[in-house]
Design goal:
This protein has about 750 residues and is of the alpha/beta class. It has 22 helices and 30 strands. Bound molecules: adenosine-5'-diphosphate and zinc ion (2 copies).
Length: about 750
């Protein structure tokens, strides 16, 4: 292997402008140590000041005149520097998920924003009391009124807030400056962190773990004490007490002088969660999230670096908290799609957490009621250690679940969106003054086509995912581009009730109001929550029982506890089941389990009604029974048959351009390039597409997609690297931009 000759060095690591790198020559004696992330000393600027920097890139070629490139003064060998770890992590992310080094650095390094830290200035008496009293008398005799006031206060209090002295005691700034010069008083400036946590101090009530919880905590802690670092998956339904297990393990890890990161999905980043951890761990807990200002976020990362906190709670960005003694990363609700970044680099938090854990000798705990297929299959392969909690911590009974066959409703001439069963139960709850949630699990953007008589859904013959209806009357596959005419009658049963499927929350709200005149109805969806704060307003109104029925999208099913809700109605499970996405069944299973978990969380027993045209579909049947393993087995069969993740890996290439033709041509060109590469390098991969994306036009950009499937992730990285090089090289794709997404979870 030949060593690189030049290194790109970044100087001010926390500055907003991370783009600026400087090229230096790597002296031969340092060529082995000069790796990505290594801290260096370099001479900088005209005065050749020696300053610290980090290597973020390596190359064989000079970017400027060779003679103007200075050599690196020293490559520092200090493995503990936190920035080194993070830069290495950024490099790994760039390689594994695509994008530029700069995009990766911006993801990983907490950036100092121009917002200044809040300063607290205090005045302190700098002479002893006797001297102060002497001076006081002197000032009185000379009628130095301001000095007298200030000294009087300082003799009493010893120290004063600067602003208090100026605003309340009306001391002029000049007086303060004079007295500082005379060394009568001292001015002390302290940076105070903006404190993002605003919690009520409450006493911590100790919870005694039950047998299952204790077993898991004991095992993980024992491993930790024995120096074993692994990834654990805790599978337990909501309310089974996973959080208590986390807290027990966290306490032990912190006691070892280590620090902990707890990731929670943004939506669940509630006051209650933070409050609960604060109760147990006090002020050494902090939060980081996207609603905080840049300054606030920067403060929290400084506190982490200065070892002022032991535990940070936040969504995926908290993964990069600059702890120097990290010991544990926990990802709660690990199946949530919010753990996948929607912007380049499109990293998955679970993979990054495991990489960071490996770099820092930490462990990882994943927890979920409905683990992702990825995680559960890794647990089955022995890559993760699996623990299961089988029952709820508090003696709450699981709800009774009814599956209603909407085809039967049609046969019985009920064309309303409410089945007879759901109508009867809603009326019953209204009469008892209990609450109801009606849930429209709408995901994705395009409508599928199905038969209301027999439930048949139009699918792509090549990809086995639902076709999407377009306004031009054609049905399209958004993976491979296959299309066909909209059928006039159902190909299975000949019924004429075949049509695009779709209902909105607004429509459901209207129909509820029409059907149940006396009911008070609230609606929560993207429209009603656009205004800041409206989300929590709706939830608190419902919690205060100011409404009987809450109609909404999946927003309403996550993490909220409403003890008076005893009925959950899922208007049409089919809505999420047939979006054109290979994860549709998995999402449906998760959503149904979550929705069911909303009913009867307390003493009152709950009921759930799932309405569907596919009552025999395994994701509906297993969700109704709370049978995760059953669902997993069936779904894995499908993934294996079709080579979808996690049975294989899938790389999405998104090609976008302002010019529709250029997007089309560009995607064809890339498709050809991939085919050629398959032949030249004897790669046994599958190329799917190019096709128009589900979101065919976003912000004036036309979007096309290509999918590439392969068993081996490294091969897909190789293909990604090849394509990144290819677009720079051909010049034919100048008006197109490319984005990569490995094993995508979001809709394109
Ligand atoms: P999960 O994280 O799995 O949803 P939680 O840890 O939030 O579950 O537990 C659900 C509820 O049960 C919480 O109110 C929690 O305080 C309570 N709980 C959990 N474990 C115990 C226990 N061993 N004894 C008593 N209450 C418990
Ligand atoms: Zn039919
Ligand atoms: Zn297809």
């Amino acid at each position: 292997m030949s060593f690189h000759k030049y290194a790109d060095i970044i100087i001010d690591i926390s500055h907003e402008n991370l783009d600026k790198t400087y090229q230096y020559l790597i002296p031969e004696e340092y060529s082995a140590q000069a790796t990505i992330g290594a801290p260096v000393k370099v001479s900088f600027g005209k005065g050749n000041r020696i300053i610290n920097g980090y290597i973020v890139g390596l190359s064989h070629e000079p970017k400027i005149d060779k003679n103007k490139i200075k050599p690196i003064t020293e490559v520092v060998e200090d493995a503990t520097v936190i920035e080194s770890h993070l830069i290495y992590l950024a490099h790994w992310i760039k390689d594994a998920f695509g994008g530029t080094m700069n995009e990766a650095l911006k993801t990983v390094i907490p950036v100092k924003k121009v917002v200044r830290a809040v300063e607290e200035k205090r005045l302190i008496l700098n002479v002893d009391i006797d001297k102060a009293n002497t001076l006081y008398d002197e000032y009185v005799s000379k009628s130095y009124k301001a000095r007298v006031r200030l000294l009087e206060a300082l003799i009493k209090e010893h120290t004063l807030d600067y602003r208090f002295a100026i605003n309340k005691l009306s001391i002029p700034r000049t007086t303060i400056n004079d007295m500082v010069k005379l060394e009568v008083i001292k001015l002390e400036t302290k940076e105070v962190y903006r404190n993002p946590i605003n919690v009520v101090k409450e006493a911590y009530k100790e919870v005694v773990l039950n047998e299952e919880q204790q077993y898991i905590a004991d095992n993980i802690i024992k491993d930790y004490m024995d120096g074993i670092r692994s990834t654990y998956l805790i599978h337990g339904i909501t309310g089974s007490g996973k959080t208590e297990v986390y807290m027990e393990v966290i306490a032990h890890v912190i006691a070892q002088g280590k620090q902990v990161i707890l990731l929670i999905p943004e939506i669940a980043l509630t006051y209650q969660t933070v409050q609960r951890f604060h109760r147990r761990f006090g002020d050494r807990v902090s939060i980081i999230n996207s609603r905080m200002s840049g300054g606030e976020r920067y403060d929290q990362s400084l506190r982490a670096k200065n070892k002022e906190i032991d535990l940070v709670i936040g969504p995926r960005s908290a993964l990069f908290t600059p702890f120097s003694d990290l010991g544990l990363i926990i990802i709660d609700e690990e199946h949530e799609t919010s753990y996948k970044s929607e912007t380049t680099p499109k990293y998955h938090s679970v993979d990054v957490a495991r990489m960071r854990a490996q770099l820092t000798n930490s462990s990882v705990i994943l927890g979920s009621a409905t683990p992702s297929l990825e995680s559960y299959s890794r647990a089955m392969n022995g890559e993760y250690r699996l623990f299961t909690i089988s029952k709820r911590a508090k003696e709450a009974v699981l709800p009774k679940v009814w599956i209603v066959d909407l085809r039967e409703e049609l046969k019985n001439k009920n064309k309303s969106i409410f089945s007879e069963k759901l109508k009867a139960l809603i009326a019953d709850r209204l009469a008892k003054n209990e609450q109801i949630m009606l849930f429209l699990n709408r995901r994705g953007y395009a409508g599928f086509v199905s038969c209301r008589s027999c439930g048949h859904v139009m699918k792509c013959p090549h990809c086995d995912i639902s076709l999407t209806s377009h306004y031009n009357g054609r049905l399209v596959c958004h993976y491979c581009g296959y299309d066909e005419n909209m059928p006039k009658i159902c190909p299975t049963c000949g019924s004429k009730y075949i049509a695009a499927f779709g209902t909105g929350t607004q429509k459901v709200e209207e129909l509820v109001k029409r059907e149940f005149l006396q009911a008070r109805v609230l609606r929560m969806d993207a429209d009603t929550t656009r205004k800041k704060g409206s989300y929590s307003t709706i939830l608190s109104q419902f919690a205060a029982h100011k409404a009987d029925i809450l109609v909404g999208t999946q927003m309403i099913v996550k993490g909220h506890d409403f003890p008076m809700v005893t009925l959950v109605g899922i208007i049409a499970a089919d809505l999420s089941l047939h979006v054109g996405d290979f994860r549709a069944s998995e999402r449906t299973f998760q959503l149904l389990c979550q929705a069911a978990g909303r009913a009867g969380r307390d003493v009152l027993k709950g009921e759930v009604v799932i309405q569907t045209y596919n009552p025999d579909h395994y994701s509906i049947v297993t969700a109704a029974e709370g049978d995760y393993e059953g669902f997993f087995r069936q779904e894995m069969l499908y993934r294996e048959m079709m080579d979808y993740p996690p049975a294989a890996h899938m790389l999405l290439v998104l090609i976008s351009s302002k010019d529709e033709k250029k997007a089309e041509d560009g995607s064809s060109l890339l498709g050809e390039a991939v085919k050629e590469m398959f032949i030249n390098e004897k790669i046994q991969g599958q190329l799917i597409g190019p096709a128009t994306a589900v979101l065919s036009k976003v912000k004036d950009y036309y979007r096309r997609v290509i999918y590439i499937k392969h068993k081996d992730y490294r091969t897909l990285i190789h293909i990604k690297n090849y394509l990144e090089g290819y677009i720079n090289y051909t010049g034919q794709l100048a008006d197109c931009s490319l984005q990569f997404d490995f094993d995508p979870v979001n809709t394109y």
